[in-house]
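A further point concerns the way the authors explain their paired sequence and structure data. Showing the layout once, in full, would remove most of the difficulty. For illustration, here is how one protein appears when written out as sequence plus structure tokens:
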Amino acid sequence: MYLSRPTQAIFVIAVLLAIAALLIFLNILPFTAVPSFWIMTAAFVLLLLGNLVKGM
């Protein structure tokens, strides 16, 4: 299995999702209905897909 570098857009989106999850966990953004665990999981899955799928 070969790993590829994620595009800059995928990396930025994953980082923004991770920051949003942190802010939700700290109750700085309390108005969301999605728990921060699932947002952080989505960020890491997106980053994983960016590494596994070439060109993404």
Helices lie at 8-25, 36-52.
